[in-house]
Specification:
There is one protein chain. With 151 residues, the protein is of the alpha+beta class. The protein contains seven helices and six strands, in the order H-E-E-H-E-E-H-H-H-E-E-H-H. It has helices at 4-19, 43-48, 73-81, 83-86, 95-99, 124-131, 134-144; strands spanning 32-33, 36-37, 56-63, 66-70, 111-114, 117-120. A hairpin with a 2-residue loop joins strand 5 and strand 6.
């Protein structure tokens, strides 16, 4: 039987569903905003700084059809050595949305590293839902998401 809390959590996610796009196959493999993957934020910094850090066009590289920006030449080199270790899961789209069978944009402040992988979410509110069952949502998203990206 649903509880009031589960109902409220579901209701809180409804705005995400309204903004989500229903067909994964129709979207680019990498979520890009303003011409850059993950909105120009440095994916390596989430691991090394423990925070979102804006990247710079002067420290950028192309990978999987998208431009990735970094805060430093060192972060760029780290990414280029093993991009799959640093690129966010599900192409940088919202991990919770992927678990529900949709794609949605992400906020750089709504993120987590779980078992060595970066996950981004639509908002901090959606991230709170995500945090309640990361392993379950990851299993669902892995089932929904297309084949892993290749280099």
């Amino acid at each position: 039987m649903p509880t009031r809390r589960s109902f409220l959590a579901t209701a809180a996610a409804l705005p995400l569903a309204a903004l989500a796009l229903p067909a994964l196959a129709e979207e680019p493999a990498i979520h890009a905003r303003d011409g850059a993957a993950i909105g120009g934020y440095d994916p390596v910094a989430y691991f090394t700084e423990g925070a979102p850090v804006e990247g710079s066009p002067e420290h950028s590289t192309m990978w999987n059809g998208a431009e990735w920006r970094f805060a430093s030449a060192e972060n760029k080199a780290t990414f280029e050595a093993d991009p799959e270790a640093y690129a966010p899961q599900y192409g940088g789209y919202c991990a919770y949305a992927a678990s529900q069978g949709y794609v949605a944009s992400t906020s750089p402040d709504a993120w987590s590293v779980h078992e060595g992988k970066l996950y981004l979410n639509y908002s901090r509110r959606v991230q709170r839902i995500w945090e309640k069952d990361k392993p379950g949502f990851i299993a669902q998203a892995d089932t929904n998401w297309p084949a892993p990206l290749s280099k």
